[in-house]
Design the sequence.
């Protein structure tokens, strides 16, 4: 039989790698808690219409990339391609607006998009993100950007990121701008790619996002969205830039920055990093004041961001971003199986005191065990040979310094505590 392999665009997270994931997850939990955000976990699959309605029928995600099927009761279901829609659905379903005028969430978990797999782009990938529902004010936007910034800093990425921000105005501003942009583009349309031509009708703002150099050149002459801001849009955006300056967070205003999803209003932002290669977006976020209403809830402003966890880990691997080691503190080696009960007792005692301990469950020779101890990265080997058993001692070998000492078994924990403190 052919070997069964994982599906294209999906990856196993193997031991070693999973430690890095847990460290990243811990950083996210810790920083979000500092900002008063609480974790929300929603189901992996939802009704298809949730994403169609919120993300937008004409986006790449909904039109091409969703894993959707018709269930036995004829409802269409979809593996979630993003999480804001699910969080918004849950917020409405549980009438959370009635519980508190401001609701702060964060999430992490797997998402599914049928994209062309490449480095930093997978079909099953993971995001963490934060959302805050209830405030329309710019200090809330800055608070959200600040969470992202603190997580990046904690991951050792502060010096390798760029923050781009833009405002795409309120919905009225966008309607007027969309028309102006279409009027500008129409006479040049034959020079644009098929993708851009398609976007011209459905989602013309996305054309501003193009990576095609010729198209970018033409777009230099295009009308700017900032000319269509209302007074309130302008004040909102200016306050954000002022608050960011107050906090010492550097940013660049990128007037071509638009986000792929339909539900954004006003603030959009993106953190990019050279450390992740061609797919350089690490975090994307923005304000979505119309989303809750679109999904049938009471009009509630909201803002959030989503970050790709695989890309975070790629970036962290390319810096000296601290990754805490999970290597064992000690490897217990014994000369023969008669001593196993002592090995098991000592392992448990040491573990109860917080040490990471392994021993050899293969009953190999002492030489092989010592080799394995070195391979495991353990700092110490605790050796129980015939001599030690006779004298109730243990041989304590520092594998890094290559020194050793024999101590009474009774003193083991004390000895260890003194060494590691
Ligand atoms: P989006 O939800 O498209 O705004 O993406 C937010 C972030 O998720 C991006 O900045 C990436 O870091 C990450 N991301 C999006 N799509 C993928 C993918 N297919 N594979 C890996 N990471 C992704």
Sequence:
């Amino acid at each position: 039989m052919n070997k069964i392999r994982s599906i294209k665009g999906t990856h196993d997270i193997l031991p070693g790698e999973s430690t890095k994931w847990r460290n990243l997850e811990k950083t996210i939990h810790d920083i979000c808690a500092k900002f008063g955000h609480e974790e929300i976990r929603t189901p992996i699959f939802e009704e298809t219409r949730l994403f169609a309605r919120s993300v937008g029928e004409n986006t790449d995600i909904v039109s091409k990339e969703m894993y959707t099927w018709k269930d036995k009761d004829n409802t269409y279901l979809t593996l979630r391609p993003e999480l804001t829609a699910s969080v918004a659905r849950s917020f409405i379903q549980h009438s959370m607006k009635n519980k508190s005028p401001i609701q702060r969430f964060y999430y992490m978990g797997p998402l599914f998009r049928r994209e062309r797999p490449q480095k930093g782009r997978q079909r099953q990938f993971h995001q963490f993100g934060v959302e805050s529902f209830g405030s329309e004010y710019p200090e809330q936007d800055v608070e959200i950007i600040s969470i992202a910034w603190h997580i990046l800093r904690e991951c050792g990425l502060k010096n390798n990121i760029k923050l781009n921000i833009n405002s795409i105005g309120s919905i009225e501003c966008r309607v007027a701008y969309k028309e102006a942009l279409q009027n500008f583009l129409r006479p040049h349309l034959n020079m644009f790619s098929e993708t851009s031509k398609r976007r011209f009708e459905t989602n013309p703002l996305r054309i501003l996002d193009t990576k095609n150099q010729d198209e970018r050149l033409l777009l230099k002459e295009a009308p700017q969205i900032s000319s269509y801001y209302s007074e309130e849009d302008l004040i909102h955006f200016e306050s954000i830039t002022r608050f960011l300056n107050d906090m010492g967070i550097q940013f660049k205003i990128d007037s071509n920055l638009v986000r792929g999803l339909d539900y954004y209003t006003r603030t959009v932002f993106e953190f990019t990093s050279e450390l992740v290669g061609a797919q350089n977006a690490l975090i994307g976020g923005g304000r979505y004041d119309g989303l809750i209403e679109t999904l049938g809830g009471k009009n509630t402003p909201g803002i959030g961001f989503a970050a790709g966890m695989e890309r975070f880990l790629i970036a962290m691997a390319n810096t000296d971003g601290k990754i805490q080691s999970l290597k064992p503190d000690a490897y217990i080696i014994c000369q023969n199986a008669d001593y196993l009960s002592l090995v098991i007792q000592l392992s448990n005692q040491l573990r109860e005191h917080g040490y990471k301990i392994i021993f050899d469950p293969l009953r190999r020779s002492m030489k092989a065990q010592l080799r394995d101890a070195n391979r495991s990265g353990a700092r110490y080997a605790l050796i129980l040979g015939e001599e030690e058993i006779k004298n109730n001692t243990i041989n304590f070998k520092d594998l890094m310094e290559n020194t050793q000492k024999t101590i009474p078994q009774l003193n083991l924990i004390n000895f260890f505590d003194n060494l590691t403190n």
